[in-house]
Design brief:
- With 601 residues, the protein is of the alpha+beta class.
- Helix content is 50%, strand content 19%.
- It has four domains: 108 residues; 103 residues, Beta-Lactamase, CATH 3.30.450.20; 126 residues, 2-Layer Sandwich (Beta-Lactamase); 236 residues, Heat Shock Protein 90.
- The strands form four sheets. It has a five-stranded antiparallel sheet with strand order 2-1-5-4-3, sandwiched between helices.
- Strand 9 and strand 10 form a beta hairpin.
- Helix 15 packs antiparallel against helix 16.
- 23% of the residues are buried.
C-alpha cells in the first residue's frame, strides 16, 4: 500500500507556486543528498534518486494538506521520518569512518615521526614508544613496554633522569612548563647523545610524562670537535711569545693569548675580569691618550686592516713596563675567511733594538778607524799640501821684513805682501778644518748640499796623494747638478776611500796608463757617483767579498774602507757596488736618492 501511495504521489501535478517549506522539510532537504534507503551513501546515482523521491514526497505532502487527506499526510510523514533516520545513520557511519581515518593517520605520524616519542609513568617506566624511539633504544617496540628507561642511560646519568621525571610530574603544582635534559645512552642501545623534551599530560590511567627524544649525536660530536679545535687554537696562541689579541669587525676582543693576559695584568691598564668583548680600539684611546696623533694613526691603521682596506699595518713603539722601557713591534693582519676582523700581535723587540744600537755604535767606531786609516794614507799628501801655503807664507814674511829695512820704504807694498801672507795662512787653516771635520766621528747629519762642492772637496783632499803616485785625477761634472740631502763629510769619506783604493791599485800594479776618473751621472730620482780606474781590475775569486769587513786587496790597510763605505751608502738610503771594467780597471758605483729635486741655481 505504501508503494502504491508512493507511485500515486509521483503522478500528482506540481504547483508552480509552492508554499514555504516547514522546518522539518528544510531538514529533510539538507539530509537527502547524503543517504537513501537500501543505497550506499557514497553512491552518486542513489543520492540523485533519493533527492528526486524527496522532492516528489514534499509536493505530495503539500497537496495532501491542501486536500485535508489525513491518511495520506500521515503516510507521507512516516515516510519522511524513515528517510531522516536513514540519513542520520549514514552520517554516523561517515563520522565513524572519518574518525578511524584520522586515528590511523595520527598513529602513522606517531610511529613514523623522525622524533622518538615516549610515555613514562611517575617511576620512569616506559608505557608507550614509537618506532623511532625503539630504534634509538635498540630494542623492538613490543619489548619496551613496562621497562624502566634508566636501563638505557649511561652510568651516572640515572639520577639526572629521575630528577627530570620528578620535575615533570611536579610541574602542575609548580607551574613549570616543558622540561629539557641531555642524556647519554648506553647498554643495549648504540652509544648516542639525546635530548629529552618532556611535559605532563592526563590520561585514563592518570598523569603521565609525554617525552620527545631527539638524537643530537652528530650535533654533539660537531660541537665537541669545535670545542677541541678552539682548545687547539688557544693552545697555539698561548705558545706564541708575542702578545696576541683577536678582534671582530667592530674592534671588540674575541680572543687573547697567555702572553697578552700576563702583560696586561702587569701593566694594570686593562680590566682583567673579562676581557672578551672589550672594545680594544676605544681602550687604545683611553690607555694612550697622551700620545695624541700617534695613537689616532695606530687605531686608524687597525680599522683599515679590519675592513680589508689594507693588507697589514705595523708600528714600532716604546712602552714603560715594571722592568723598564721595552720596545714592541705591533703588527695587524686581517682574519682569513669571510669574517671581518684582525689579529694584532705585539712582539717584544727590545733585544733587537739594543743589538741595533750596539751595531750602530760599532759601525761608528769602525768608521772612525777607517777615517784614521785614511789619514795615514793621506799623510804624505797632506804634508805637501800644507808645506806649500806655509812655505809661501814664510817667503812673503821674509819679503815684508826686507821691505821694512830698506831706505825706500813703501807701506803700500808691505801691506800687499802681508795680505799674501794672510791668504796662505787661511788656506792652510781651511785644509786643517776640512781634515778635522773629516776625522770627526758623528751620526748621520743630512743637509741640503751641493753635490758639485762635495766632489770638489773630496778631490782636493786626495789630489796631492794622486800626484805623489803620478796618477792623474780627473773629475767629470755636468752643469746644473741637483742639490742632495746627505751628510757631506760621510759622502766625502766614501769618495776618498774609493779614490785612494784606485790610486794604490794602479801604483801597486805599475800600470802604464795611470788615471782615475770621478763622474757624476744624475737620473730622475737618484744621482750616481762613478769612480773608474785604469788599474788591474777586481780579482775574480774575491769579487763578491770586497765589501766584507777585514777583506782587503792591500796588505797595508785593515779592509775597513769598503765595508764602512757601504754602511754609509745604506744609511743614506743608497747603494754601493763594484763592476769589472770591460776594457781595463774597475768601476765603483755610489747611488744616492734625490729626496729633493730642486736644481741648483
Amino acid at each position: 500500500m505504501i508503494r502504491a501511495m508512493e507511485q500515486d504521489t509521483t503522478d500528482m501535478p506540481t504547483n508552480e507556486h509552492e508554499p514555504p517549506m516547514s522546518h522539518r522539510e528544510e531538514r529533510f532537504r539538507s539530509l537527502v543528498p547524503a543517504a537513501d534507503h537500501g543505497l550506499d551513501c557514497d553512491d552518486v546515482e542513489g543520492k540523485g534518486s533519493l533527492e528526486s523521491r524527496f522532492d516528489a514526497l514534499i509536493r505530495a505532502l503539500e497537496a495532501a494538506r491542501e486536500a485535508n487527506d489525513e491518511q495520506r499526510s500521515l503516510l507521507l510523514d512516516l515516510q519522511a521520518h524513515r528517510i531522516e533516520l536513514e540519513m542520520q545513520g549514514c552520517d554516523l557511519r561517515a563520522a565513524q569512518q572519518a574518525l578511524e581515518i584520522s586515528r590511523d593517520h595520527y598513529a602513522r605520524l606517531f610511529d613514523l615521526a623522525p622524533v622518538g616519542y615516549l610515555v613514562f609513568d611517575a617511576q620512569g617506566v616506559i608505557r608507550e614508544a614509537n618506532l623511532t624511539a625503539a630504534e634509538l633504544l635498540g630494542m623492538p617496540r613490543e619489548r619496551l613496554a613496562s621497562r624502566p628507561f634508566s636501563g638505557f642511560v649511561a652510568p651516572g646519568q640515572s639520577a639526572a633522569f629521575f630528577a627530570h621525571i620528578r620535575t615533570v610530574f611536579g610541574a602542575h603544582e609548580k607551574r613549570v612548563g616543558r622540561q629539557s635534559l641531555l642524556l647519554y645512552l648506553s647498554g643495549r642501545a648504540q652509544a648516542r647523545v639525546v635530548r629529552l623534551h618532556s611535559m605532563q599530560r592526563s590520561s585514563d590511567a592518570g598523569p603521565e610524562c609525554f617525552t620527545a627524544m631527539l638524537d643530537i649525536t652528530a650535533e654533539h660530536e660537531a660541537e665537541e670537535r669545535q670545542r677541541a679545535g678552539d682548545r687547539l687554537r688557544q693552545s697555539v696562541l698561548d705558545a706564541l711569545p708575542a702578545q696576541v689579541v683577536v678582534l671582530d669587525s667592530s674592534g671588540h676582543i674575541i680572543a687573547v693569548n697567555r702572553a697578552w693576559r700576563e702583560c696586561a695584568e702587569k701593566g694594570g691598564r686593562y680590566p682583567m675580569d673579562d676581557v672578551i668583548g672589550l672594545d680594544y680600539l676605544a681602550h687604545c684611546y683611553w690607555a694612550e691618550q697622551d700620545e695624541g696623533e700617534e695613537t689616532s694613526s695606530v687605531v686608524g691603521g687597525i680599522r683599515e686592516v679590519i675592513r680589508r682596506r689594507r693588507p697589514g699595518f705595523s708600528r714600532e713603539y716604546p712602552c714603560q713596563t715594571p722592568e723598564g722601557e721595552r720596545w714592541f713591534l705591533m703588527r695587524a693582519v686581517p682574519l682569513d675567511g669571510e669574517l671581518e676582523g684582525a689579529v694584532v700581535a705585539h712582539l717584544d723587540i727590545t733585544e733587537r733594538r739594543l743589538a741595533e744600537e750596539d751595531a750602530k755604535r760599532a759601525r761608528g767606531v769602525l768608521a772612525q778607524a777607517s777615517r784614521l786609516n785614511a789619514v795615514g794614507i793621506l799623510a804624505s799628501s797632506l804634508v805637501h799640501e800644507l808645506i806649500q801655503p806655509l812655505s809661501a807664507a814664510g817667503f812673503f814674511t821674509s819679503a815684508a821684513s826686507e821691505l821694512t829695512r830698506g831706505p825706500s820704504l813703501d807701506p803700500r807694498r808691505v801691506n800687499q805682501v802681508l795680505g799674501r801672507v794672510d791668504e796662505q795662512i787661511r788656506r792652510a787653516s781651511d785644509i786643517m778644518e776640512r781634515l778635522r771635520a773629516f776625522l770627526r766621528g758623528r751620526e748621520v747629519n743630512k743637509l741640503e748640499v751641493s753635490l758639485d762642492e762635495v766632489v770638489e772637496h773630496a778631490c782636493e783632499l786626495v789630489q796631492w796623494f794622486a800626484s805623489d803616485h803620478k796618477v792623474r785625477l780627473r773629475c767629470v761634472r755636468a752643469p746644473g747638478l741637483p742639490q742632495i740631502l746627505a751628510d757631506p763629510v760621510q759622502v766625502e769619506q766614501v769618495l776618498v776611500n774609493l779614490i785612494c783604493n784606485a790610486v794604490q791599485a794602479i801604483d801597486a800594479a805599475k800600470c802604464d796608463r795611470r788615471e782615475v776618473t770621478v763622474e757624476i751621472a744624475p737620473a730622475q730620482s737618484s744621482v750616481e757617483l762613478i769612480v773608474r780606474d785604469t788599474g788591474p781590475g777586481l780579482p775574480p775569486e774575491r769579487h763578491n767579498r770586497l765589501f766584507d769587513i777585514f777583506e782587503s786587496t792591500n796588505d797595508s790597510n785593515l779592509g775597513l774602507g769598503l765595508a764602512i763605505s757601504r754602511a754609509i751608502a745604506d744609511a743614506h738610503g743608497g747603494q754601493l757596488w763594484a763592476e769589472q771594467n770591460p776594457s781595463e780597471g774597475a768601476v765603483f758605483h755610489l747611488m744616492l736618492p734625490l729626496e729633493r729635486t730642486e736644481v741648483a741655481a
